[in-house]
Specification:
By secondary structure, the chain is of the alpha+beta class. It is built from seven helices and eleven strands. The protein folds into two domains: about 150 residues, no CATH class; about 80 residues. It is about 30% helix and about 30% strand. The longest helix has 24 residues. The chain starts with 8 loop residues before the first strand and ends with a helix.
Length: about 250
């Protein structure tokens, strides 16, 4: 079993924010989803958080309750959870953002669409993991997670690894969708930078995110997944591929 049982793990999913109340400084989100095989080859099932919610949940007497953080950084609490509960879909949370600088920055990021994803910080429990064999899957199956030790839920800016290996997997039929998604996120970050709200740290993080998105957009635009196919075509039959590089250079970010 390749699970890091005795270590701190993080796991995120791109789940839409359910609701945001700026006046109350409250946000409703799903921190995790049940019955879905994720990138770690795990399927968390309903009941996996039950013990943690009882021991360190909102209504517990623990002095180390499940924390509401930014980037899984324990030195960056952005508020507290008012509600944490399992429903049929997943782990549903209502968080109240604090009035500290970190809380104010997070509230602005929620309002402007910068925060789109959430992750959990947790520890696997050895005897609560079961490998389910499935011959239809390339790795022979998946891990069913019956229980996790939950420590925190974090707000994440667009997901840390959302586009890390996008060039390795981009296909012709999905290239347009990826470009449109990247461009949409660039517009969102650019708008937030123009507004200029928040701390210098927030604006710096936005600037770094914009540079990263621009680089990924350029990489996707100039990539050609059919190079090998073109090599098989006779020179006189070759068609000049669309000049994405020229398009990117013409965009004034």
């Amino acid at each position: 079993m390749n699970k890091r049982i005795n270590t701190y793990n993080v796991k995120g999913q791109n789940l839409a924010i359910k609701d945001l109340d700026l006046e109350k400084r409250e946000v409703a989100v799903y921190l995790s989803r049940f019955d879905v095989i994720d990138a770690d080859n795990d399927m968390i099932i309903k009941g996996a958080f039950k013990k943690s919610l009882k021991e360190r949940g909102v209504n517990s007497t623990s002095n180390r309750k499940i924390a509401f953080l930014r980037y899984h950084n324990w030195e960056m609490p952005i508020g507290t959870f008012k509600s944490l509960e399992e429903d049929n879909k997943g782990l549903f949370a209502v968080g109240k953002l604090g009035t500290s600088t970190l809380g104010e920055d997070a509230l602005k990021d929620y309002d402007e669409g910068i925060i789109k994803e959430h992750s959990i910080g947790f520890r696997y429990i050895n005897d609560k993991i079961k490998f389910i064999e499935d011959e239809t899957m390339g790795n022979g199956g998946y891990y069913q997670i019956k229980e996790l030790q939950l420590w925190e839920g974090s707000a994440v800016t667009f997901g840390a690894n959302q586009y890390t290996n996008v060039i390795d997997v981009v296909k012709s039929e999905g290239k347009k969708d990826i470009i449109e998604e990247l461009y949409s996120e660039i517009q969102t970050v650019t708008k937030s930078l123009i507004n200029g709200k928040g701390t210098d740290e927030r604006l710096y993080n936005l600037e770094m995110r914009l540079k990263f998105l621009n680089a990924r957009l350029f990489d996707v635009a100039v990539s050609n997944p059919f190079n090998k196919q073109f090599d098989l075509v006779k020179p006189e039959e070759k068609q000049t591929p669309f000049n994405w590089e020229k398009v990117i250079k013409s965009i004034n970010f």
